[in-house]
Design brief:
Elements (H helix, E strand, L loop, with lengths): L1 E4 L8 H14 L4 E6 L4 H5 L12 H7 L8 E2 L5 E4 L9 H4 L3 H4 L2 H13 L2 E6 L5 H9 L2 E7 L3 H20 L5 E8 L6 H14 L12 H8 L4 H4 L4 H16 L1
Parallel strand pairs: 1-5, 1-6, 2-4, 2-5, 6-7
Antiparallel strand pairs: 3-4
Helix pairs in contact: 1-12, 6-7
Length: 255
Protein backbone atom coordinates (compact mmCIF):
# COMPACT_ATOMS: atom_id res chain seq x y z
CA UNK A 1 0.00 0.00 0.00
CA UNK A 2 1.43 3.35 -1.07
CA UNK A 3 0.22 6.46 0.78
CA UNK A 4 0.88 10.06 -0.26
CA UNK A 5 0.76 12.79 2.38
CA UNK A 6 -0.28 15.99 0.60
CA UNK A 7 -1.71 19.47 1.01
CA UNK A 8 -1.47 22.44 -1.33
CA UNK A 9 -0.71 24.63 1.72
CA UNK A 10 2.73 24.69 3.34
CA UNK A 11 3.34 24.53 7.07
CA UNK A 12 0.52 22.11 7.87
CA UNK A 13 2.89 19.43 9.16
CA UNK A 14 3.11 16.99 6.26
CA UNK A 15 6.65 15.88 7.12
CA UNK A 16 5.76 15.52 10.80
CA UNK A 17 2.76 13.36 9.94
CA UNK A 18 4.68 11.30 7.36
CA UNK A 19 7.71 10.53 9.56
CA UNK A 20 5.87 9.82 12.79
CA UNK A 21 3.15 7.78 11.10
CA UNK A 22 5.88 5.75 9.40
CA UNK A 23 7.60 5.14 12.74
CA UNK A 24 4.33 4.16 14.41
CA UNK A 25 3.52 1.70 11.63
CA UNK A 26 7.03 0.24 11.77
CA UNK A 27 6.65 -0.22 15.52
CA UNK A 28 3.58 -2.32 14.75
CA UNK A 29 5.81 -4.66 12.77
CA UNK A 30 5.06 -3.28 9.31
CA UNK A 31 7.91 -3.04 6.83
CA UNK A 32 7.86 0.62 5.78
CA UNK A 33 9.48 2.56 2.96
CA UNK A 34 9.57 6.37 3.18
CA UNK A 35 10.07 8.59 0.12
CA UNK A 36 10.97 12.23 0.54
CA UNK A 37 9.50 14.07 -2.45
CA UNK A 38 9.94 17.54 -0.95
CA UNK A 39 13.04 19.50 -2.09
CA UNK A 40 13.24 20.94 1.43
CA UNK A 41 14.40 17.45 2.47
CA UNK A 42 13.02 17.59 6.02
CA UNK A 43 12.10 13.92 5.98
CA UNK A 44 15.55 13.05 4.63
CA UNK A 45 17.11 14.73 7.67
CA UNK A 46 15.22 12.33 9.97
CA UNK A 47 15.43 9.08 8.01
CA UNK A 48 19.05 9.24 6.88
CA UNK A 49 20.87 6.28 5.32
CA UNK A 50 23.10 4.29 7.66
CA UNK A 51 26.43 2.77 6.75
CA UNK A 52 29.46 3.97 4.85
CA UNK A 53 27.77 5.57 1.83
CA UNK A 54 29.87 8.28 0.19
CA UNK A 55 27.33 9.49 -2.38
CA UNK A 56 23.90 7.93 -1.89
CA UNK A 57 21.49 7.83 -4.79
CA UNK A 58 18.51 10.12 -4.25
CA UNK A 59 15.11 10.89 -5.70
CA UNK A 60 16.94 13.18 -8.11
CA UNK A 61 18.55 10.12 -9.70
CA UNK A 62 15.15 8.53 -10.26
CA UNK A 63 13.85 11.59 -12.06
CA UNK A 64 17.03 12.63 -13.87
CA UNK A 65 18.41 9.22 -14.82
CA UNK A 66 15.49 6.77 -14.41
CA UNK A 67 17.51 4.98 -11.75
CA UNK A 68 15.58 1.90 -10.52
CA UNK A 69 14.13 2.03 -7.02
CA UNK A 70 16.32 -0.76 -5.66
CA UNK A 71 19.45 1.34 -6.22
CA UNK A 72 18.05 4.34 -4.33
CA UNK A 73 16.70 2.65 -1.19
CA UNK A 74 18.74 2.61 2.01
CA UNK A 75 18.40 1.27 5.53
CA UNK A 76 17.86 3.78 8.33
CA UNK A 77 18.60 3.64 12.06
CA UNK A 78 14.89 2.94 12.60
CA UNK A 79 13.87 -0.71 12.69
CA UNK A 80 11.62 -1.71 9.76
CA UNK A 81 12.09 1.64 7.98
CA UNK A 82 13.96 2.11 4.71
CA UNK A 83 14.22 5.40 2.85
CA UNK A 84 14.63 7.17 -0.46
CA UNK A 85 16.15 10.53 0.39
CA UNK A 86 15.87 13.72 -1.64
CA UNK A 87 18.29 16.39 -2.77
CA UNK A 88 17.69 20.16 -3.06
CA UNK A 89 19.00 20.01 -6.63
CA UNK A 90 15.77 18.31 -7.70
CA UNK A 91 14.18 21.79 -7.65
CA UNK A 92 16.19 22.71 -10.74
CA UNK A 93 15.03 19.63 -12.65
CA UNK A 94 11.31 20.37 -12.79
CA UNK A 95 11.51 22.82 -15.71
CA UNK A 96 13.24 20.21 -17.88
CA UNK A 97 10.72 17.55 -16.93
CA UNK A 98 7.85 19.75 -18.07
CA UNK A 99 9.22 19.52 -21.62
CA UNK A 100 7.60 16.09 -21.87
CA UNK A 101 4.82 16.09 -19.31
CA UNK A 102 3.14 12.88 -20.42
CA UNK A 103 6.35 10.91 -19.93
CA UNK A 104 7.45 12.81 -16.82
CA UNK A 105 4.19 12.14 -14.95
CA UNK A 106 4.93 8.39 -15.07
CA UNK A 107 8.56 8.46 -13.87
CA UNK A 108 7.97 7.64 -10.21
CA UNK A 109 5.32 5.00 -10.90
CA UNK A 110 7.52 3.34 -13.52
CA UNK A 111 10.61 3.19 -11.29
CA UNK A 112 9.10 2.75 -7.83
CA UNK A 113 5.61 1.28 -7.61
CA UNK A 114 6.26 -2.38 -8.47
CA UNK A 115 9.33 -2.65 -6.24
CA UNK A 116 7.69 -0.85 -3.32
CA UNK A 117 4.51 -2.92 -3.38
CA UNK A 118 6.45 -6.19 -3.62
CA UNK A 119 8.97 -5.46 -0.84
CA UNK A 120 7.09 -3.29 1.70
CA UNK A 121 3.84 -3.44 3.60
CA UNK A 122 3.42 0.33 3.51
CA UNK A 123 5.16 3.07 1.54
CA UNK A 124 4.69 6.66 2.69
CA UNK A 125 5.48 9.56 0.37
CA UNK A 126 6.07 12.99 1.88
CA UNK A 127 5.32 15.74 -0.65
CA UNK A 128 6.09 19.40 -1.15
CA UNK A 129 3.37 22.03 -0.59
CA UNK A 130 2.15 22.24 -4.17
CA UNK A 131 0.18 20.25 -6.69
CA UNK A 132 2.96 20.38 -9.24
CA UNK A 133 4.83 17.72 -11.16
CA UNK A 134 6.36 15.89 -8.21
CA UNK A 135 3.13 15.69 -6.21
CA UNK A 136 1.22 14.55 -9.28
CA UNK A 137 3.84 11.84 -9.78
CA UNK A 138 3.31 10.75 -6.18
CA UNK A 139 -0.46 10.55 -6.61
CA UNK A 140 -0.15 8.61 -9.85
CA UNK A 141 2.09 6.16 -7.97
CA UNK A 142 -0.08 5.90 -4.83
CA UNK A 143 -3.04 3.82 -3.72
CA UNK A 144 -4.37 6.48 -1.37
CA UNK A 145 -3.71 9.91 0.12
CA UNK A 146 -3.81 11.48 3.57
CA UNK A 147 -4.31 15.24 3.85
CA UNK A 148 -3.12 17.04 7.00
CA UNK A 149 -5.18 20.10 7.98
CA UNK A 150 -3.74 22.71 10.33
CA UNK A 151 -6.34 23.60 12.96
CA UNK A 152 -7.21 27.30 12.97
CA UNK A 153 -5.76 28.01 9.52
CA UNK A 154 -8.26 28.91 6.79
CA UNK A 155 -5.60 28.58 4.07
CA UNK A 156 -5.02 25.00 5.19
CA UNK A 157 -8.69 24.22 4.52
CA UNK A 158 -8.38 25.79 1.08
CA UNK A 159 -5.35 23.57 0.45
CA UNK A 160 -7.36 20.55 1.62
CA UNK A 161 -10.11 21.27 -0.91
CA UNK A 162 -7.55 21.75 -3.70
CA UNK A 163 -5.86 18.46 -2.77
CA UNK A 164 -9.21 16.63 -2.81
CA UNK A 165 -9.90 17.97 -6.29
CA UNK A 166 -6.46 16.83 -7.48
CA UNK A 167 -7.02 13.34 -6.08
CA UNK A 168 -10.40 13.06 -7.82
CA UNK A 169 -8.99 14.31 -11.11
CA UNK A 170 -6.02 11.93 -11.11
CA UNK A 171 -8.19 8.98 -10.06
CA UNK A 172 -10.58 9.71 -12.92
CA UNK A 173 -7.96 10.30 -15.60
CA UNK A 174 -4.79 8.40 -14.77
CA UNK A 175 -4.79 6.26 -11.64
CA UNK A 176 -8.14 4.56 -10.89
CA UNK A 177 -6.52 2.80 -7.90
CA UNK A 178 -6.10 6.14 -6.10
CA UNK A 179 -8.49 7.04 -3.29
CA UNK A 180 -8.66 9.65 -0.58
CA UNK A 181 -8.09 7.91 2.74
CA UNK A 182 -8.87 10.63 5.30
CA UNK A 183 -7.73 14.01 6.57
CA UNK A 184 -5.85 14.37 9.84
CA UNK A 185 -6.23 17.48 11.99
CA UNK A 186 -2.80 18.69 13.04
CA UNK A 187 -1.40 21.47 15.25
CA UNK A 188 -4.58 21.72 17.30
CA UNK A 189 -4.21 23.94 20.38
CA UNK A 190 -6.83 23.35 23.03
CA UNK A 191 -5.78 26.54 24.83
CA UNK A 192 -7.19 28.82 22.13
CA UNK A 193 -10.84 29.27 21.24
CA UNK A 194 -10.11 29.64 17.52
CA UNK A 195 -8.32 26.29 17.41
CA UNK A 196 -11.07 24.54 19.37
CA UNK A 197 -13.70 26.04 17.11
CA UNK A 198 -11.71 25.04 14.03
CA UNK A 199 -11.41 21.42 15.15
CA UNK A 200 -15.14 21.29 15.88
CA UNK A 201 -15.97 22.86 12.50
CA UNK A 202 -13.74 20.43 10.56
CA UNK A 203 -15.08 17.39 12.40
CA UNK A 204 -18.71 18.43 11.85
CA UNK A 205 -18.33 19.53 8.23
CA UNK A 206 -16.21 16.63 6.99
CA UNK A 207 -17.27 13.99 9.52
CA UNK A 208 -16.31 10.56 8.15
CA UNK A 209 -13.57 12.11 5.99
CA UNK A 210 -11.48 12.97 9.06
CA UNK A 211 -9.49 10.67 11.36
CA UNK A 212 -10.76 10.60 14.94
CA UNK A 213 -7.21 11.11 16.17
CA UNK A 214 -6.27 14.79 16.47
CA UNK A 215 -2.60 15.77 16.68
CA UNK A 216 -2.10 18.68 19.09
CA UNK A 217 0.74 21.15 19.36
CA UNK A 218 3.36 19.67 21.65
CA UNK A 219 6.75 20.90 22.81
CA UNK A 220 8.06 17.35 22.44
CA UNK A 221 7.37 17.49 18.69
CA UNK A 222 9.38 20.71 18.39
CA UNK A 223 12.21 19.19 20.39
CA UNK A 224 12.20 16.11 18.17
CA UNK A 225 12.34 18.20 14.99
CA UNK A 226 15.27 20.18 16.42
CA UNK A 227 17.11 16.92 17.08
CA UNK A 228 16.19 15.52 13.66
CA UNK A 229 14.26 12.53 14.92
CA UNK A 230 10.68 11.36 15.27
CA UNK A 231 8.82 12.27 18.44
CA UNK A 232 8.30 8.54 19.04
CA UNK A 233 12.06 8.14 19.35
CA UNK A 234 12.62 11.38 21.25
CA UNK A 235 9.85 10.88 23.79
CA UNK A 236 8.06 7.52 23.38
CA UNK A 237 5.64 8.06 26.26
CA UNK A 238 4.56 11.65 25.55
CA UNK A 239 1.03 12.54 24.46
CA UNK A 240 2.07 13.18 20.85
CA UNK A 241 3.63 9.72 20.56
CA UNK A 242 0.44 8.12 21.84
CA UNK A 243 -1.53 10.16 19.29
CA UNK A 244 0.62 8.93 16.40
CA UNK A 245 0.20 5.33 17.55
CA UNK A 246 -3.56 5.92 17.58
CA UNK A 247 -3.37 7.39 14.08
CA UNK A 248 -1.41 4.37 12.87
CA UNK A 249 -4.11 2.08 14.26
CA UNK A 250 -6.78 4.02 12.38
CA UNK A 251 -4.77 3.88 9.16
CA UNK A 252 -4.25 0.13 9.44
CA UNK A 253 -7.97 -0.29 10.01
CA UNK A 254 -8.65 1.32 6.63
CA UNK A 255 -6.03 -0.49 4.55
Amino acid sequence: MIISVINHKGGVGKSCIATNLAHALAARGKKVLVLDCDPQCNTSSIFTPVGDIAEPKTLYDIYAHNTPAAKCIYKTSYENIDTVINSPQISHLEVDLYQDVKKSYQILRKNMRKYATEHYDVTIIDNNPSLGLYTINSLITSDCAIIPIEAGCRYSLDGFVAALEAISSIAARVNPELRFLKAVINKADGRTSISRASVDHIQRKFAAKVFATVIHTDTKIKEAVAQKMTVLRHSPSCTASHKFRSLANEVLGLL
